[in-house]
Fold each of these.
Amino acid sequence: MSRWKCGIEGCDARFEDVEGAIIHQTTEHTRHECKVCGTIVPDGYFAIRHAFDEHTRAEFVRAYDADSSAVRVREEIKSDVEEEADLNSVVQTLREQGAL
Ligand SMILES: [Zn+2]
Ligand SMILES: [Zn+2]
């Protein structure tokens, strides 16, 4: 059973490793425009990381009309990914593919 699921807008692509999931999210899905600052970021993990590294929880909730459980779900995804992923290798792979 593949434990990582893409999860973007009902996409149920599954991956054995988290790096594969992030690469898929970045190369196969359209980019996301941050509703707080308008920056274009890859959807999925990178969009979550952008929202929580660059903005406060309050800004996120206001811009996305989100509630505290939406924040908690995203924080859990972010920490799960960061525990598991070799993000340097993900970024390097994406740069080599010209996706970043
Ligand atoms: Zn997907
Ligand atoms: Zn932003």
Note: The chain is about 55% helix and 10% strand.
Amino acid sequence: MGVMEKIIDSITMYVDVYFFKIAGLFFFFLIFSSMALLLPGKKDRERSKKNKGAEDKEEDKPSLSYFTRVHDINGVFYKDFKLELGYYLFNLFLTSLLVGGIVYVLTSYILPEIIPHQYFAGTVQNFPFWLQIFCGLIIADLSLFVPHWFAHHVFWRFHTIHHSAKEIHWLTGLRLHPVDTMVFTIGGVLVSYTIGFEGEAIVLATFVMTMYNFFVHANINLGYPKPLCYILVSPNYHRWHHARDKRAIDKNIATMFPVFDLIMGSYFYPHDEMPKEYGFFEPDKKAKIPEKFEQQLIYPWIYARARKENDKKKKLKKKEKGQEDGKNVR
Ligand SMILES: [Zn+2]
Ligand SMILES: [Zn+2]
């Protein structure tokens, strides 16, 4: 094949990929927006209560009534819809090109040298198809869990963007800083390459996973009772991941199977409660999360600096306190 043909070939492939990604997004838009719209909202709940003549003084408390909307919005375009769609398009057209290059070099030149034997290569393909899909789902979830764990414990400054959402809607799953996107993609490739599993089943499993990721972020009040809550992640389980609540920091990292959280000790799911607010704890007033996309792109560095200064202040205070305590002893 000539060079020109090769170039045309790869361009066609890219166009195909983009077409599917955009068409897929439109498909998910239809599903999740209509799903949330069809559910009754807070106003409908109030109206039905009034009709029944019941008075509820605890209306301020986030409600636990399942199969309702959590955030009341008019129509499908919620407040941060444009921003979150912007993140998706930015990552699709710019970040993925860069990451695609890195992943190509990694999987064709570097990884085969380091990992000569892929653990499940060939083995899984001999399983019945349903079992292949199940294994595919576990591998796909693990490929998300590992980088997500690192995003919380090492690259948190970039992952703050995902957690900056004050309301959680289906597209919030794609609200990722470009560096965070790289962490997720490269981390995911490292995990799935090491395990080594190819074929239709993993493609289908990845599709189901993408859909499930939209579902757990959707504007739906839905939790699973015991013991199902230990087996599958529910939208409310992931809502706690986004809660601005001291008890929920770095909890519920799994997207589909809570077993990973149970193993890592990051499982947190109170059945009789809903998060009061969403977001994360900013280090100080100067490091409040901005609303605009371009300001959010540089936010991780502002966050890191504020956090550093904060830590310094804390250390100094501790030192002073220690000295005072020392004096008192003497
Ligand atoms: Zn999330
Ligand atoms: Zn997270």
Note: The two ends are 85 Å apart (CA to CA).
